[in-house]
Give the backbone structure.
Amino acid sequence: MLAWTIYLSFAGALAEALLPKGKAALARWLALAVAVAGLVLAVIAFATGFGRGLNVIVDVPWVPSMGVQYMLAADGISRVLVLLTGLAAVAGVLFSWNIDHRTNEFFAFFLALIGGVFGVFLSFDFFLLFVFYEIAIVPKYFLIAIWGSTRREYGAMKLAIYSFVGSAMVLIGLLAAYTMSGSHSTGLIQLAHAHYPVSFQMWCFPLVFIGFAILAGMWPFHTWAPTGHVAAPTAASMMLAGVVMKLGAYGCLRVAMYLFPKGLDPWGFSFLGIGSWRDVFAILALIAIVYGALVALVQSDFKFVIGYSSVSHMGFVLLGLMTLNQIGMTGAVMQMFSHGILAGLLFAIVGRIVYERTHTRQLADLEGMHLSKTLPFGAWAFVIAGMAAMGLPGFSGFVSELQVVVGAWQTDPWWTIAVGVGIVIAIAYTWRAMQRAFFSDKSPSMHELAGEHGHKLAPITWPEVTGFTLLAGASLVVGLYPKILLGAIEPAIRTMIAGGIR
Amino acid sequence: MNYADLFRATLPETALEIAALVVIVIDLTVLRKAALRARAAVAALLGVAGCVAGLWMLQLQGTAGFSYGGALVLSGGGSAAVAEAAILVLTGLTLLLLVDSTFTRHVGEYVAVVLMAAAGGLLISAAQDLIVIFIGLELLSLGLYILTAFAKTSGKSAEAAIKYYLFGGMSAAFLLFGFSYLYGLTGSTNLHDIMQATLWTNIAQSAMPLLYVAVVMITAGLGFKVAAAPFHLWAPDTYEGAPAPGAAFVASVSKVASFALLIAISTAALHIFDNTAAAAQTAAHGCAAAAPQYLGFGSPWFTILAIFAVVSMVLGNLAALVQSSVRRLIAYSAIAHAGYILIGLAYFSYAPRSTEALLYYVVTYGLTTVGAFAVVDVVEAATGSDRMDAFLGLHKRNPMLAAVLLVLFLSLAGIPPLVGFWAKFNLFAAVLEVSAGVVPFTLVAIAIAMSAVSLYYYLQVLKRAYVMPSIEESPLRIRPATLIVLVAVALAVLLLGCFPALLGGWINGFFPAI
Amino acid sequence: MNGIPILTLLTAVPVVGAIIAFFSGRHARGVALITALVALAGSLCVWMQLPANGSIGLVERFAWAPSLGIEYHLGVDALGALMLVLSAIVTLMAVDASHRVPHQPGLYFGLVLLLEAGLFGSFTALNFYHWFLFWEVSLIPAFFLIKLWGGPRRGPAATQFFIYTMAGSAALLVAFLAVFFATGSMDFIHLTAMAQSGALARDVTMRLGPVMPWLAIGVLAGFAVKVPIIPFHTWLPSAYSEAPSPVTMLLTGAMSKMGVYGLLRIALPIFGPQIAAMRTPLLVLAVITVVMGAWAAAAQKDLKRIFAYSSVNHLGYCLLAIFALAVPATSTMAHNNQAAALNGVILQMFNHGLTAAALFWFVAIIQLRSGGLRGLEDFGGLRKAAPVLAGLMGIAMFSSLGLPGLNSFVSEFLIFRGVFPLSWEAASFSVLGLLITAAVLLTIIQKVFSGPLPEKWASFPDLHHSERLALAPVIGLMILLGLVPELILHSVNPTVVNLLAHWRF
């Protein structure tokens, strides 16, 4: 049944593409219907699959001569991320309600992206996973390049090139894994049982890991992320930060770490205290956490603040993966969900609720607008989302970050110090952005005053309220009752750890 | 000599030649006074009919091939049959493009030349003998020179043709030179005999340099045909100058035929690994009982191919980055694609796995290119230019055309689920299955990295079609014949990408099961 | 878990009220009043249902995040229940005092109720995780209440308040995470038991090295900011004076108690030996807080600032007692002294909450009539114009300075009664604070209510009926508790005994 999330999305994309031009309302409702259907399927699958292990949905030969299977399956991790995708998709459609330029094409690309993302999370065949992974990349380019804002063509191209360099690395890894396995199959499970020699895993693991991690925004390959996010239209940056970056992290976990667990073993020598790929990636993740937060602290463009905060938050995911213990990896998957929801929400607020009304994202300009009074919904939505993102207890961010911190502690106490620094800076930049954008007391200049009287900010519309409620509610529910997700993630991680990841 | 056998082995060629004659006769007699469009339609349809007949004949001729004096001259079945079928289909598609073109009034002659050149292509696909190869190549090449020059009012066309002709003549000379050395060294014109002789019997040590000269000359001559760097110089000019249907023919049919020839040569080179022959050879030379299926860098032939491959991939992709003419862009990307394919040839196994992967790639590449030139043709007809900026706002002027362009270019860039991705994956997997050493891995890594680069220039065109603001917004019409080609190609690219086993299974059907 | 999860429901009441208030615009005050009344009834209900032996009752406990070993664990003893009642009373007073909210009333009352929810939650949580959640949750509405409805310099005041408290929270969080890493538990009861058996210090030292004193300092720092202890107090005067008066009532009446409560529920039980080791410097800080708080109050000219500093002074007594009793009890006598001091602390928390909130309410009433003026020198002879106001505010001020017969006397007496034998030096110095406070408050009475009535205040309106009606119960409660402290003490005393039995210094 879960497979229908994929088919529905692609069918929706096709239908949107064939829709006659000028039927913007129809296009919107159609997209919403498709997204909601996807979400409903995801929720049902999540609920029915709760507490169950791997659930194979489809498994038929696709290219028998190469041993490629069309195998869709879902374990706890997949179900959680599919749920995230469903939520983000609905919210993305809602926050794109005001797009009236080439509406049907927009939603066609959007739904194609969603379909690809669903596909990646459900694929249990490396080849199939790669196919969906690439399918998800192309629509992003067009979404950003056509409907984006600041330097959109540059941002889109940068994103596309980075993505493809990453996927080229993954493709090399795929070919290598396939030919070295001797099992004549590209199924993840078969490949995982291939017993690759350690020397092979030692070079193939980092290749595939970095290939995926580029999309997860790993420092220093993160530079596409802020520019891409800033250039993207709201829904696209929501999907980018919310879901697409998770594709990378998911690939790191599901493919790189699952297939090449020995690649994480010590090299046998150490250089500056770094003795394995695991140390390397953990340190890169730590740098991302601190560096992303520091850079976010000094941005003058509101959206860049959120863009860099994504880099920082994704650092938690990668760090959690590198802890290689139950709690840290569970935390990493939690953080994928949490950041997916919250980054989407923040981008929605900045890109849709604020920017579409004020037409500026410069904090200096927003200071004079007294948005807490003129746009109270936006202000309070940001307060809630910001608090959640900075890891306030009661929201999903706290639970996930706590787990990552605990996992990191169990692995190497020094890691936690860097994480702590990152968390403190996160509070600072969120606070700074909030203060300056919404609650500044700076009196407006005469010019701005005149402008303000000239046009009132457009009222908040129902899709915005609905979208906000959906995402903030999800974060709150998970924050207040994390067992909902933990019950699904923990057994899956336990299985993976038992399967060789140490 | 059994003429009945020869006739049977050349049935498709015969069909094409007859069709060519019929077209000329009808065009010059019955339709002499008819309107140009009607003549073009009739000529093209007759040509297509000839291709269909050729396909039918292909079915009839069986897999026996044609031998003379105990040596195989024309092979039947196997890779030759696949290549021939592909050539016939692609020729048919390029002929359909003519219906809507206006570059010439001599449509009958045009179709006749196309069909005859295609016959040359069929010939070299099956050829197993140096003489036949050369004749086939000349038949094909002369046709191509004429096609390139066919737009008589266009200076570019003439320039391209003369360049093509000069380069082509020179490369033919190289090839012939190489062939003559081979013959001198081995005393045979049959590929298999030559290979046997060069590899396993004692060529005098002093004669070895001559063999190397011969191999270099031959690879140079064939490298010219497939537009591999550094023998690619003709390609951008020809692609740019030739009339679009002609360019499509050059880019697809001639590619398929030339690669089929390379496959034949490579197969012959590895013929010693034929199960029966291998046993005899291991007994005679004391090689390991389990002979490898691959010669690797032991053979200069494969070394040279690998070098050509790298140079082509890098040069083709990098040069394509700076093009502003879409035709030249396609030309440079063709060079790059030739590079990918050459890796497959450099790591070639006697088992049908490699042949299958190579043919898959060449055939699907030819198909996609025909579609790409069809798009360029439509845009050019409307705007008079093939500059990238001519594609501005294409999605508004004709969403259908833009969508086809999207599918084709993304396929060329190797994006799943389009056929280009599967072709690449299949090819590289085949390479690594032959040998998983450091060198093949490096070659494949370069190829994949370069195809990531290639995305950039394909996106440059797509960006103009979809993203950038349009200058001209008047709708752009596609005529029905072109539409058929476009839709057929786009659907094929999409379907074969989603169900790669369809084409793969069909190709495998031509090889005896191992 | 038994039957109705009354504590969860109690916390949910203001949350629901807040959501309704957000959307009810002009009627938000009514919504808030009703909610606050319901919450008060609920908290009294909790108070009634306390177990007689002073142990923790009304426990709710179930697994919450099993992988982290975190449970949802709620429960109250008399200490917690008393704080619930106090929070409910102060919130009701604050809502009552918020007559004119200049803008966005829905948001204002919603935030007030959220703050109440935070208070309820933090006074009932027995697991660090949830406790910290509510601790932070209460901070955010407070910040916005100051930021959006405060006085002219509200921006910096709010930011300062937030940063100080946040920094304190961070120190707390780090310390507790360290404890969690070492022990795998965040449960207060469990950690208390571990501390009592010495397992906690052993585990932490084994896993993390000799960091136990630093963890204690981290935890103390978190609470020191909240209470506050001088020198961590500098956020307080500007926050208290810039906040709208009803918010100041909440800040001083209830939120400052979170700090004291934290010391009693968390710092002393879990880090007892470490605090005992630092007892002398801590006592010095407590004495400084008492004396300097009073002294600073004497130097102010602004009524709100005076009461702000006098709040510092009053809570200083609590700190004094808490640090003084952090010493191993060697005899029954010493034990009795500890019990007296602790009884005093708990009672003082309640009394100060009530009195300070009332005082700020009076300031709000005066400001309402004076057009915003609240300087000490701005008034005079108001007793003539507004006798009822002068009388009632006088009672509140006398309560504050500890006049026998009023509530604060009992608690301060108990504190000094306990502290003298435990540390006579600290107690003696602190008496100085009592004297200065008395002087300050008498000065106010003199300057504001006595003397000649200036012309411009001739028509200073007295309290009208609704205000009298609202204030009467508060003043009545002060008198009642001054006369019959047993009302509270009979429940508090068993808890005190129970607490002391579980503490180890």
User: Anything to note?
Assistant: Residues 3-498 of chain A form one domain. Chain A has a mean pLDDT of 85. The radius of gyration of chain A is 22 Å.
